Amino acid sequence: MKLATKLIHAGVFPDPTTGAIMTPIFQTSTYVQEAPAVHKGYEYARSQNPTRTQLEAALAAIENGKHGLSFSSGVAATDAVIKLLAPGDEVICTNDMYGGSYRLFSKVFEKFGIKFHYVNMQDAENIRPYINANTKLLWVETPTNPLMNICDIAALSAIAKQHSIILCVDNTFATPYLQNPLDLGADIVMHSVTKYLGGHSDVIQGALVMNSDALREQLYFIQKSCGAVPGPFDCFLVLRGIKTLHVRMQRHCENGEKIAHYLKAHPKVKKVYWSGFEEHPNHVIAKKQMRGFGGMMSFELKDESVEAAKKVLSSTHLFALAESLGGVESLINHPATMTHASIPREERLKNGLSDSLIRLSVGIEDVDDLIADLAQALG
Ligand SMILES: *Cc1c(COP(=O)(O)O)cnc(C)c1O
User: Fold this and answer.
1) What does the pLDDT read at residue 341?
2) Which domains can be identified in the chain, with CATH numbers?
3) Is the CB of 94 under 6 A from ligand 1?
4) What is the separation of C-alpha 48 from the centre of its chain, rounded to a whole number of angstroms?
């Protein structure tokens, strides 16, 4: 089945009791049993909920995986993956990544004795010096947030397999429309479903997808034991959101390409970070592993002062000044003070994230209106 068909049909089926074509919202905390321990597979809603079951099946299908698990947020999904580890274990992660992942790793898990190495993975070979007998997990984000660097998933997977290291890829930015990490050798795909999969800026949710039965068992155990599960209404919203992922992503990509080129040609813009440009340092890898370049990009002005950037950030009308991304509406964001403020300034600058960087989540509005909005804000 092709992706567009899977997004609409995979994992879901009409309600057997009524024929309702849409998955019902099973707003219940428990299920009546016929006799002690005789039930229909549902005992208590932290462990199982039918709305969630259908969503998890759909998530697995669209990422070409065998098992899906959904969580109450993207960071809850990340948290579950790190809980596979034990004190003394080490993780190698992408240096330029989502600020909340960095915060979770450095502020929560480090104190439990897990060690994290932040490495520039644009060349997969860069991870080799950090591998030792304690290395258990490779955490990869590509494209990276907010600098749009690309890591070669297949090359990283080859190295991880040599050393029996679990490879988890945060596929939030690319979505299964553009990239399928499991097909490239990843063991786990993580999503902030909040973003493109939900797609309408109305739900917080996370997901993990995997092929291994053993990993599924361990992660399901963590999901149920730690309890960061999404509510049934949120699962319903995401089931609805993913049905249109392909048409939304197609437009995000088209609008993204036009805006990236518009900004690049603008006299006040110094640099645009978008992997669709031939001169992007990882363009060849992007073309190899992605089916398009998406609607996320960042840029810097020639006037490198924070004031100049802040002026643009507060002058747009259609691009709303907000954290998050991946919704139908366009957003503009200042990573240094908003999404990435949890990363120490020194660390940010080392990774190339300047104080004046502006990030765009290009929505699916008419691109002429979006360009006019940027034109007036830059002018
Ligand atoms: C937003 C985001 C997360 C965290 O997800 P939440 O749903 O906000 O908890 C993780 N990774 C990336 C790339 C994100 O953009």
Assistant:
1) 87
2) 3-242 (3.40.640.10), 245-378 (3.90.1150.10)
3) no
4) 24
